[in-house]
Design a protein that fits this description.
Two copies of one chain form a homodimer.
Chain A: E1 3-8, H1 15-28, E2 32-38, H2 52-61, E3 66-70, H3 72-75, H4 79-92, E4 97-102, H5 107-119, H6 121-133, H7 138-148, H8 161-175, E5 181-186, H9 205-215, H10 227-240, H11 246-259, H12 262-267, H13 275-285, H14 289-296, H15 303-314, H16 319-324, E6 332-338, H17 339-348, E7 356-357, H18 369-379, H19 386-396, E8 400-402
Parallel strand pairs in A: 1-2, 1-4, 2-3, 4-5, 6-7, 6-8
Antiparallel strand pairs in A: 3-6
Chain lengths: ~400, ~400
């Protein structure tokens, strides 16, 4: 059985994801699609609009065969670590290939770029340091340093968000000495972060979430999502009366920032000198997450990095916590599978290099501290009994079966 | 000018408090009444129904001349420390006397009891240790040890809550070598913690709060409170749409308990081994503060001690924080004064042994860390802009003037 790996967030699953999933199976010639998906908090430091369980169902009902969770310690991270954790999981699950969406849609320039950056590593790093010293943000420094390198083959435009992720998947595989083969599918129409809608079937997840928020219902997004997504979103809303948004978490973040002492703030993961004071002053005077972020934003920090720091403060994730999570994931947390996914899993199960977790309660609690806190915080914005229901799924929910 | 000191919480100010205030001035022959009042969180580990500013106004409009705040580090404490902090402030403000309400209403047995316990200190302490070892709560052990002592004079029944406080005020004055004279007024009708109403004019603060909660308005409590209290309560509710109750703070306490790691929990003030695990398990499974408290309660911990621990967890008050607050208050925070109070203050001002704080912003921020966090947490349950308004009073509100 050939398997293709996909790294995703599905926030929510839409027609573009459906296209990517189908294409991935087709161009890689795979029988099963394995998805490494972030949990309740996402790579760009945001709560997912619906929990991982609902997003798992969406994926399974639209053609995914196996969905595993990217642990919090790798999901809420910059692209490099996010990619390393994801590729590690897919490689551990014996994926024959990995297929990612990109603005470019041609795999060779990605491979050349990874080689190029490896060959010119020293120059590249010294250029990065140079730009950082000039006071530009890290991603910006990367882009500038990259543009300074000599290129004699086709390379990738690393200013595009999905190209960057694609680059990091391949670099991660190289670092992990994995033999997984790479494919890429050109993203159709919708830009990753696009807030407007260009096509009558395809819209970015960002614009879909924006529409839901504006309209207060799901009606307008129906053309852009598979029927299964619509049904799952609708069912979730009917039960929990809630789609999750940063603003819901704002009172907790504010409370947290304002009650931490300076030592505690300095221990938070990814926080740098000077930021604690800035965060606290902004928290005191801001009435919403949006205005807080606008107050705290500087050239030095990207919006997404600040959002991730906020998620870490919210979940009380310290540098020590992150260090003890290790350099690669320590377990494979199974969120759901199709009949075919199950068949595949039965074949590879005995050779897995990591424990396969289908019931959390069967493993030491300490293994899941960060994921558990993330689940707790995620459900905290809901009223009882919804809060308890959703939180208890973290322990009690067996992998979701489709078919 | 003779001055009488009063220790109070005024939660809210009612006819019983009015009676006590008038009687205190009368029997002590005082021109001014000075009130040491707890801030937004109270001795028994509860949020006050309305903020300290509103309660200060109530007191001033009903005959108090000077209201100063018992700092958080002394207010949210067992009776002994609460009394020490309060008496220290009143003594520092040169009160000629202190007058407290008690179930007994006769001062001599209080004085005898303080002497008795001083004389038989060793026996008393060894009996306390004996009962603690038997697994009974600290207050219960005190009461049992006390009943074991030989008494050849009239002593006080220390099983009654106001008698206990009275005893501690006198013991504190002795410890502080203060010459302040003591008076006591017999409490009329309403027991301290009484939830029912016996008299047509007097009801306990507890029963008044219960009525407000039940009825959702102030109508039924009108007979039991001065007109000024009614007006202030009504104005507060009109502006903020909110009376403060533990249940409002429950989501934050739950969030806090469930995101702290074990080290952090163990650093909280007054927490003992074994309790962190118990608190976290109860927080996971409880849907309200009431049910949480019922789940966490044991014979070993009194309800009020557990509530205080919860307030400390909520405000992130560690053992280190409390230690650095010192053994006695480090400042006199002025909340409000009448014309006569101002006159009095002008007379004693130059001899005060402590800094007099009328504008917080004129002093180092570190001095007020705990009070500031308490004010922050207290206002966190309100919607914007009420939250910002109330919180900014912590810095900006000058002492309230009544004439």
């Amino acid at each position: 059985m050939r398997s293709v790996g996909i790294v995703a967030e599905y926030n929510p699953f839409h027609n573009g994801h459906l296209y990517h999933l189908k294409q991935s199976k087709e161009i890689s010639g795979s029988d099963v699609a394995i998805v490494a998906m972030s949990g309740n908090f996402l790579q760009r430091g945001e709560p997912a609009i619906v929990p991982k369980w609902t997003r798992t169902k969406m994926a399974l009902l639209s053609g995914a065969d196996l969905v595993v969770e990217i642990p919090y310690a790798f999901a809420v991270q910059k692209a490099e670590i996010f990619a390393l954790g994801s590729v590690y999981l897919l490689d551990a699950l014996k994926c024959s290939s990995i297929c990612f969406g990109s603005e470019l849609g041609n795999i060779h320039p990605f491979l050349h770029t990874v080689d190029l950056l490896k060959d010119q590593e020293e120059t590249y790093n010294s250029r990065i340091r140079f730009y950082i010293k000039q006071g530009v943000s890290y991603p910006k420094a990367l882009a500038l340093a990259y543009s300074d390198l000599e290129k004699n083959k086709d390379t990738v435009d690393l200013s595009r968000p999905n190209n960057i992720l694609g680059y990091h998947y391949i670099a991660a595989a190289k670092k992990l000495k994995s033999n997984v083969e790479f494919f890429t599918v050109k993203r159709n129409t919708a830009e990753h972060d696009d807030q407007t809608i260009h096509d009558d079937k395809i819209a970015s997840a960002t614009s879909i979430r924006k529409l839901i928020k504006q309209e207060g219902n799901l009606h307008r997004i129906r053309p852009y999502i598979p029927e299964a997504t619509y049904n799952e979103m609708e069912a979730y809303y009917r039960t929990y009366k809630h789609f999750h948004d940063w603003e819901d978490y704002w009172p907790y973040l504010q409370y947290r920032l304002l009650t931490m002492n300076n030592d505690e703030l300095n221990q938070m993961y990814d926080i740098e000198e000077g930021l604690p004071y800035r965060l606290q002053r902004a928290a005191e005077s801001s009435g919403s997450f949006q205005s807080f972020m606008e107050n705290v934003k500087t050239k030095r920090y990207t919006w997404t990095r600040l959002q991730r720091i906020c998620v870490h403060a919210l979940t009380n994730t310290t540098r020590t916590d992150m260090n003890s999570a290790g350099e690669t994931p320590g377990y494979i947390r199974l969120l759901g599978m199709s009949a075919k996914g199950r068949e595949y899993l039965n074949k590879v199960k005995k050779d897995l290099p990591l424990p396969l977790v289908s019931t959390v309660s069967a493993f030491p609690e300490a293994l899941f501290t960060l994921d558990r806190r993330a689940a707790l915080v995620y459900s905290q914005v809901m009223k009882e009994p919804a809060r308890s229901d959703l939180f208890s799924m973290e322990y009690a929910q067996p992998p979701i079966m489709a078919d």
